[in-house]
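Histidine phosphatase family protein
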Amino acid sequence: MAATLPPPSRIYLLRHAEAAWAQPGERDFDRPLNDRGYDDAELVADRAADKGYRPDLLISSTARRCRETADAVHRAMGLSLDILYVDELYNATPDVYLEIINTQNVGSVMLVGHNPTTEQALEALIGYDALLRALPNGFPTAGLAVVDFDGAAAEWKLTDFLHD
């Protein structure tokens, strides 16, 4: 269940906000957020900032919808927040997400990615039962999981989940 060990001791998993349907000839990779997606990205980013959630590093897929979601977080949490764009997050496996997180030598990291991989990475951290209790309908767009490492129990626990 503990798919990665600290550091980091806090992981934020943010699924990109709702994207527009692809236009004729447009690649999936290039789909932008739709109007609701822009609103939801701003809302979840503002709510996270209001709760004092601020990663030491934000890592985002290079897909347009993820970059636009990451931009909302960047605006809400301050322009001094470091952002790293990683091509490998697009069409990746949960193991890739966790490996990227695990190689960061920071206290907390936020990953802006895609489903089903974001949900699968959360499951790898907290386990199937905890995932099902927390998200019985799956990981929604613009959903933000806050996961902390409980040193006493030597396991990851879902601390909070924000969404629209």
